[in-house]
Amino acid sequence: MKKYLGGAFAACMASILLFSCGPTERKLPIYGERSPVEKEVDGKTVVDTIYHTIPNFSFLNQDSTNLTQDFFKDKIYVANFFFTHCPSICPTMQRNLLKAYEKYKGNDKVAFLSHSIDFKYDQPSVLKDYATKLGVDNDQWQFVTGSKADIYGISEKYMVFTKEDPNAPGGYDHQGYLVIIDPEKRIRGAYDGTNDEQVKQLLEDLDVILAEYK
Amino acid sequence: MITRYFIGSIALVSMLYFLFSCNTDLSVETMQYATNGQKIYVKHCQNCHGANGEGLGKLYPPLTDANFLNENRSKLACIVKNGMSGEIKVNNTLFNQQMPGVPELSAVDIAYVLTYVTTYFGDSKTHFKKEEIEDFLKNCK
User: Are strands A76-82 and A177-181 parallel, antiparallel or unpaired?
Assistant: First the structure.
């Protein structure tokens, strides 16, 4: 009996060593609804998975030029929602996203996209002034504005809650998530931009996904 | 024998006290004000000015400029209560962003939070008294 136990234990240890994956092989999950579709390839029916993706968009950026998905072609980007005179969570969230910007500055595989939810006040010139004062001096971090319908509509696609609310500090209510989007426009991670632990995780996960799209 | 142990342990405790207690140059009352002030700071100020008073870029000024804090000691209460706008120079950098005030803070709350900022981020060794803050607030522009 004892011998059997010993054998089982050895087998367990061996399989842990064999099948456990090391940290370098970690992959980020793919978030959102998915649906199977049947396709015909070479006369055979195969099942493919359609993932939730960020649709194309067209917004005005801090340089008053149109920004579309073309800018993020072959890039991994981190998106969030904020407004320039937000008195609550935004300064902390942007301070933390600035850490990521500084870490990946010059890496053309990584970009950042901040959507203003204050469509009334945050015109491109206001966004430009904010970006400059924050310490953003290249186009790797884009700040955009758009119509209320477009900005609030796309926030749903990123699964971030935004709402115009006169009772909220500054007039707008929103979540402080930093969302990782992969080059296939899929959501690969969402991190609370006001939580130091989660921001640390974001920085680690960006390395993980960069390795996936090397 | 017991006396010797007693004296020995007292000596040990006082040695440890001198080793590990920090800010011994602040009075207990000042420390209490600063501790209360930290809670208010976290709630109302930290978002913009940062956990260590470091500010954020050229948007929000740091609170670590001891000269600024000392020179403007009598104006700080009004800034906290009513906010401020216009250009200011902090740590040799110009800032020009509107700061919202926190009008709901009482005089003693302002004394707490200013004590925290000026002793932890600045070089002050004393606390703000409630009466002092009340006088400052009478002269707000």
Answer: antiparallel
